[in-house]
Structures are given as structure tokens and as C-alpha cells.
Amino acid sequence: MASLPKMPTSRDKLSAARTATINPFEYGRELEPDELADRVEIVAKVADTMLHGRKLFLIGPRRFGKTSVIRAAELKAISDGACVLRYDASAFPTITDLAARLAADAATAFAGSLAGAADRIVKTATEMFGRLQPSVTIRPDGSVSITLGMDITTGVSARVVPLLSDVLDGVERGAKKLGRPVAVVLDEFQDVVERGGVEAEAQIRAAVQRHKNVGYVFAGSKTRLMIDMTSAGRPFYNLGDREFLGPVPRADLARTLGAGFDRGTIPVEEGALDEIMNLAEDVPYTVQLLARACWDTCRASVSIGSTPATLTRKLVDNVHKRVVREQDPYFSSAWESLTPPQRTALVALLQNNGERLTSSAVARQYRTSVSTLQSAFDALRSRGVVRDDSVDGVTRLRVDDPMFGAWISRFVGK
Questions:
Q1: In this structure, what CATH number is given to the domain that contains residue 211?
Q2: Which of 280, 343, 265 is nearest to 317 (CA)?
Q3: How many structural domains does the chain have?
Q4: What is the reported pTM?
Q5: Distance CA 399, CA 376 (A)
Q6: From CA 138, how far away is CA 357, in angstroms rounded?
Q7: pLDDT at residue 33 tops 80
Q8: Which of 1, 73, 96, 410 is the most exposed place for a label (fewest CB within 10 A)?
Q9: Would 19 be classed as within a structural domain?
Q10: Contacts of residue 4, Cβ cutoff 8 Å, sequence gap at least 6
Q11: pLDDT (tens digit, 9 = 90+) per residue, 216-238?
Q12: Of 3 and 353, which is predicted with more confidence?
């Protein structure tokens, strides 16, 4: 005989009501794997690269969730037995600092059991990086640092990129003995190439193309630079696969948004979710930011168990205007830091939908020259203010932060 379904208790109802007050939309941090909308295939490909000694260039603009994808893939690879050494290259003052940190982490990870840990780490570091004369320091808290003792002004380390290449060679030697998958992940990889100069690409390729025991993920947010450095005629061409991280498909993103508002028991008007995605220009970070502000607005001053305000297109528009206005001090400072030609270029971009911006017609419209516009856009790309958006063979320029673009359109671009 079938049992009757269990009826929810008062405690169950109260728990559900309290859960509905927790905003599910997060931004500004690495998302956990179960928080990602879609991205299943790309996470699997990055993890496969880590596990099988392959090489991958992961290219995606800022705010598109690249770091969260890498983190999800890292967790998957680790659960399958891999040792993952992951770094944000832009976080290190110099390439030498990056190389030393990589060497210290690799020696620690490859040293094995905790028994005689200090001796094992010193021995492992010497075996892997002996040519670089490593000096190992083990602090009281157990953390490890390595100083690469060879004078980097002479000999093999006359430049810092060869020093990094030598460390990568040492990681390969250690990985060969380790007996399990090893991966090196360098996020914001274009910073290494920019700081290392024109020889950096050839030097790093010369090292990693021989490696069979280490998987490499080279990730970068400066899409144009990353595409150029992996194109025909450049050293990184055909070194590994290229994967482009674009917007989350709208259907998947809409499902995630809908589930979040449903969790807050917030009624949703038809078209309201599309309005969030339109105003955020499908940039995942900005979608989450705007959705979070809308969620809070709908549930503002709502007592537990009562019905919040409906998410409407008008509410989304009003919240968007408020969020843009709240960031006025930051955006005003960013605007003031730009040169007059760069400001003109940004206004032209927004008023012309990012298309044909270096044509003579656009230059005449804004009383400037084509070369001045081109130089301004190059500088804005370098500063990360604008990015190239290529879809179906058509490339448009976009303001990297859609909220900044909305601020310009509202306050200075009229």
C-alpha cells in the first residue's frame, strides 16, 4: 500500500520562507561549479587538458566567468587525481616572482608524504631546479618559498622569461616521476608575453612544446592580443587548441535567472528577464550584478511569508538607472582619466553601435581624423576599457563594462 506524502511542518515552511530571503545572485567572486549557468562543455575540455598533458589557450573577455570556469575544471581534475598549479600572472610584480612561486609550489606538491617534509622539499627542489641553484625556506607555519640563486643578470637567466622556461622544464622533470597528472594554469597569460617582450613567445614555446607530462592552460582576457599571439606566423600557432569563452546562451541564462527569482518567490513579468540580459549586454558578471539588485528591490521590506513585488521591465529599467547612478563617483573618475580623443572615441562607439568606427564618415561626424580615432581605440583596448566582439565574421567594439557604457550614454554622450 502506498504511503501518504509527508505534509510539510510549520518548521519546514519557516525554513523555506527564510531560504527565500537569501539572494542567490553572486558576482565578484569565483562561482562554485553548481552555480555556473551552462559552461558544461568548456569546463570538461579544460579539465581534460589538465588531466591528459594537453595545451589549451582559453580566451575570454573580463566578466565572462573565465576564472570560474578554470576553477570548476581545476576541482574536477583534482578529484580525478591531478596536481594543478594555478596562477594569475597579473598578480605577480615580476615574472621572476611568478617563476619562484611556481617552483616553490611544485617542489612542495611533488615532495610526497609529510614524513621528513622539509628534507623532502629541499631534495625535490634540488632535483627539479638544480640548474637554478634554488634556496628553500620553510617557515614555521609550513609555507615554502624558493629563491632562485643564479644571478639573473648573467648567463642562462639574462632575461626573466628564460628563467620561467627553466622552471617549467623543472616541473616537467618532476611530473615525469610523480606518476599522476600535472597541470600548470597561467591566467592573464598575455601579461607574461607583454612583460617578457617579443622573445617571450618563442622562449616559452620552445620549452613547453617538448613537455609530455604537464598539461597547460594559458588563459587571457585581452582577446585581441590572445588571438593575435596564437594566429598563423606566431610561435604559439598550433601549439594547442584555442577555446573562446563567449556569452552564456540566453536560454540557459534565462533558466538560471528564472530559478533565482523563483527561489525568492518573486513573480516575473514576461520580458523582464530579457530586459536584464539586454541591459547587461549578456555579460555574465553584469547580469548577476543587475539581477541581484533587482532581487533585493523586489523583496525590500517584505516580511517572511508575504509576496514580494513583481519583477517587471519597468522595475528592471529603474534598478539599472539606480545602479549606474550609484557608481557615478567611480565612473566619473574613470572618465576624467581619459584623454579628450579617447572620450570622443567612446562616445562614437556608443552612438554607432561599435561598427565602422574608423571610417572617414565617423571621423567627420566627430570632427577628428581616422588616425586619431584608431590611436584612441588602441589605447582604450590596452587599458581594458573596450574590447573586440566578433560574431559570425563581424567584429564590433564594445565598452568592456556595460554599466560604464550606460553611464556615458546617460551623462556625457548626449
A1: 3.40.50.300
A2: 280
A3: 3
A4: 0.79
A5: 13
A6: 56
A7: no
A8: 1
A9: no
A10: none
A11: 999 999 888 898 899 998 999 99
A12: 353
Which DSSP string corresponds to 173-237? HHHHHH-S-EEEEEETTHHHHHHH-TTHHHHHHHHHTT-SSEEEEEEES-HHHHHHHTSTTSTTT
Q: How far apart are CA 232 and CA 168, in angstroms?
A: 24
In angstroms, rounded to a whole number, what is the distance separating the alpha carbons of residues 248 and 282? Answer: 7
Cell representation of residue 312: 517587471
Residues 86 and 108 occupy one common structural domain: yes
Mean pLDDT over 317-331 rounds to 96
Crossing angle between the packed helical segments 313-326 and 284-299, to the nearest 10 degrees:
110
Query: Which residue range(s) make up the domain with 172?
Result: 39-244
- Tell me how far apart the alpha carbons of residues 404 and 82 are, in angstroms, rounded to a whole number: 40
Q: Quote the CA–CA distance of 54 and 163 in Å, as a whole number.
A: 22
Per-residue model confidence as pLDDT tens digits over 67-82: 889 999 999 999 999 9
Separation between Cα atoms, residue 164 and residue 129, nearest integer Å: 11
| Distance between CA atoms of residues 389 and 396, nearest Å | 5
> Which three cell numbers mark 317?
529599467
413 and 351 in contact (C-beta within 8 Å)?
yes
